[in-house]
Structure formats: structure tokens, C-alpha cells
């Protein structure tokens, strides 16, 4: 197992924020020291939940200068790239199963000036990245089945994080590994030890209200608040 000592980047998922006060919540996690802001876009078709569209991303954009990490759980996905890059996304991650032409979609994301990510569902092997790893900036390893916040971490995904880490180290391209789903202070450590660079955390960031966001983020980084 690769044991890493560096601190991971933290990308709180606003799926667990108070939707009635989203702008305020984005400012609060920014001030609490998060690195990125994770936006879960669900279409009620590719996943059984319906969440945020580009109009909401555009409305939130003035509330933080930190990178907006937009996770598209949408099928078909191609027609949604331009609306989200136009709304202010910095990183766009897609699910290969949701796009008919993954390579082309990745190129469209990068041509629009955004970083491009590929997400691997719990049942999707790391091998899916063959022929794509050199074209992307980020691999999002899903440690829950996509669709809802608050699910339990699927431990088998640690082996996948290790496999993706080996693939990236061998290839020599700069690609970040992000882990999404059921990440808390305990599973965060396991993810970082397996080779993760970025951790998404919804429930574990927003737990306890705004006065706790700073200590929650510090705990996810493995620091004391
Ligand atoms: O993509 C997602 C679900 O599809 C969310 O980002 C993820 O579930 C984060 O929520 P939590 O940290 O509460 O598990
Ligand atoms: Co997500």
C-alpha cells in the first residue's frame, strides 16, 4: 500500500448544504478553509435524484473564488458541457457510462478551458481509464453508488484508488485522484494512504452547522482544528 503523508485537498459537496441559503453556505465553507467546492448535478435519469442546474452554479459563482468542481451525473451529457462551463465551472467530471463519446466529451471540456475528470462507479474497473488517462486532469473514484449523499463508504474502492495511483505514477502524467462518497475523518485517512489527492465530503463537512465547518474540514485533512 502507498502511504502518503501529504494533506489532501477538501472539496465539500454542497448537496448537504442548506439549499434555502446556498450562497451563504458556499461563503461559509470558503471561509472555513475548503479548497474546492463540489457541485453534484443529478438528472433524475442517469441517477435517481434531481439536484442543481447551470442557473444555480451561475448564481453561486460570485460567492467564492475557489474552483467549482462540477460532478455531472447526467445522461446524455454532451449538451450540458457548454452551459456549465459558461456558468463558471472550473473542473467538470463525467461518467463514461453517461456519455456516448467519452474522448470527444473530454476534449470539449478542455477546449472550453476547464479541467476534465472521469468518474469510476463502484462497479466500474480502473481499466476503463486505458486510452483516456493521458487526456484527463482528474479521476473521481466513487466510493458510493452515485445519486445520494449520506451513504456508507464502500471499502473495496480502496484497492481501486491504489490501482489508479499506480497507473498514474507509471504513466508520468499529472492527474489527481479524487474520492467521493461516505468520506469522513476515518475513511479520509484510508483514502489518502491509498493514494487520494482530493476528498469530497458532504455530510462530514456540513455536520453541526457553520460554526463546525472549520473543524470538520481540518478533521478531514487529518489535522486538529
Ligand atoms: O456524488 C455524490 C453522490 O452521488 C456526492 O458527492 C457524495 O455522495 C457526497 O456526499 P457524502 O459525503 O454525504 O457521501
Ligand atoms: Co459528487
Overall radius of gyration: 16 Å
Number of domains: 1
Query: Approximately how much beta-strand content do the residues carry?
Result: 15-25%
Number of alpha- plus pi-helical segments: 8
CATH classification, class level = Alpha Beta
Global structural class:
alpha/beta
The CATH level-2 architecture is identified as Alpha-Beta Barrel
Spell out which ligands are present.
ribulose-5-phosphate, cobalt (II) ion
Furnish the topology, listing elements before pairings.
Elements: E1 9-12, H1 22-31, E2 37-42, H2 54-60, E3 68-73, H3 81-87, E4 91-94, H4 102-111, E5 115-120, E6 138-142, H5 157-171, E7 176-180, H6 185-194, E8 198-201, H7 203-206, H8 213-220
Parallel strand pairs: 1-8, 2-3, 3-4, 4-5, 5-6, 6-7, 7-8
The structure holds ribulose-5-phosphate (5RP) and cobalt (II) ion (CO).
Residues 13, 38, 40, 71, 180, 200 line the site of cobalt (II) ion.
Q: Could you write a compact summary of the structure shown?
A:
The protein is of the alpha/beta class.
Question: Could you walk me through the main structural features you see in this protein, from its secondary elements to its overall organization?
Answer:
With 225 residues, the chain is an alpha/beta fold. It has a single domain, classed as Alpha-Beta Barrel (TIM Barrel). It is globular, with a radius of gyration of 16 Å. Strand 6 (138-142), helix 5 and strand 7 form a beta-alpha-beta unit. An eight-stranded parallel β-sheet has the order 1-8-7-6-5-4-3-2. The model has no long low-confidence stretch (mean pLDDT 96). It has eight helices and eight strands. The protein is 32% helix and 18% strand. The chain binds ribulose-5-phosphate and cobalt (II) ion. The site of ribulose-5-phosphate has 22 residues, from strand 2, strand 8 and helix 7. Catalyzes the reversible epimerization of D-ribulose 5-phosphate to D-xylulose 5-phosphate. Substrate binds at residues 13, 71, 147-150, 180-182, 202-203. This is Ribulose-phosphate 3-epimerase. Its cofactor is Co(2+); Zn(2+); Fe(2+); a divalent metal cation.
Amino acid at each position: 500500500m502507498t502511504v502518503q503523508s501529504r494533506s489532501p485537498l477538501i472539496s465539500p459537496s454542497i448537496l448537504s448544504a442548506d439549499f434555502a441559503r446556498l450562497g451563504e453556505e458556499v461563503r461559509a465553507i470558503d471561509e472555513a478553509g475548503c479548497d474546492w467546492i463540489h457541485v453534484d448535478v443529478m438528472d433524475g435519469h442517469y441517477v435517481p435524484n434531481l439536484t442543481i442546474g447551470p442557473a444555480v452554479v451561475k448564481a453561486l459563482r460570485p460567492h467564492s473564488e475557489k474552483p467549482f468542481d462540477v460532478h455531472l451525473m447526467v445522461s446524455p451529457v454532451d449538451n450540458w458541457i457548454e452551459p456549465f462551463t459558461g456558468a463558471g465551472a472550473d473542473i467538470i467530471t463525467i461518467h463514461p457510462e453517461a456519455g456516448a463519446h467519452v474522448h470527444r466529451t473530454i476534449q470539449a471540456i478542455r477546449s472550453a478551458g476547464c479541467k476534465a475528470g472521469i468518474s469510476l462507479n463502484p462497479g466500474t474497473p480502473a481499466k476503463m481509464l486505458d486510452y483516456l488517462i493521458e487526456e484527463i486532469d482528474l479521476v473521481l473514484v466513487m466510493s458510493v453508488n452515485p445519486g445520494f449523499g449520506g451513504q456508507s463508504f464502500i471499502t473495496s474502492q480502496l484497492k481501486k484508488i491504489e490501482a489508479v495511483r499506480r497507473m498514474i505514477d507509471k504513466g508520468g502524467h499529472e492527474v489527481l485522484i479524487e474520492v467521493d462518497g461516505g468520506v469522513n475523518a476515518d475513511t479520509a485517512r484510508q483514502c489518502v494512504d491509498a493514494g487520494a489527492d482530493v476528498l469530497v465530503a458532504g455530510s462530514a463537512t456540513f455536520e453541526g452547522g457553520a460554526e463546525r465547518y472549520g473543524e470538520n474540514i481540518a478533521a478531514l485533512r487529518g489535522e486538529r482544528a
